[in-house]
Design brief:
Blueprint (H helix, E strand, L loop, with lengths): L3 H24 L4 H31 L4 H28 L2 H6 L1 H31 L2
Helix pairs in contact: 1-2, 1-5, 2-3, 3-5
């Protein structure tokens, strides 16, 4: 199975997280417009990635005939639900420039948790899940 598209999405997502971290360190209120734009762009990639995983990747692994991969796929899919919901809610809330300017510490606190979870998940998929898929 060719998973290059998924790997490319991961590169974009991890890059987007890095940009958001850099902007937050420079000043949330001062860079609120840039943060909101970057967060919207990141949200589009994440949303597309999740949709393709749900429509193509997970069902393909379920039908693969490989019980170990089918189970791993179910585990990853179930685990992602909470991470995805948190990210989507975070993205909707903090794409608001006025809110970023008004509550930079709130953004930082939530970003530290939500983006860390997304980052950890991407790294885990890159090191565990994707190599397992490619070895099928």
């Amino acid at each position: 199975m060719n998973i290059d598209r998924f790997k490319n999405h991961h590169t974009e997502i991890l890059s987007g997280i890095a940009v958001l971290r850099k902007l937050a360190h420079q000043g949330v209120a001062d860079y609120a417009i840039d943060i909101a734009q970057e967060l919207k762009a990141l949200s589009q990639v994440v949303t597309q990635h999740l949709a393709i995983e749900d429509r193509i990747l997970y069902p393909s692994l379920e039908r693969s005939g490989d019980g170990r991969m089918a189970q791993m796929s179910r585990t990853y899919q179930n685990d992602m639900q909470g991470i995805a919901t948190s990210f989507i809610n975070f993205s909707r809330r903090w794409s608001n420039i006025a809110l970023l300017q008004k509550n930079p510490d709130g953004f930082r606190d939530e970003a530290n948790q939500v983006l860390k979870n997304v980052h950890t998940r991407m790294v885990r998929e890159n090191h565990e899940f994707y190599p397992a898929i490619e070895s099928m």
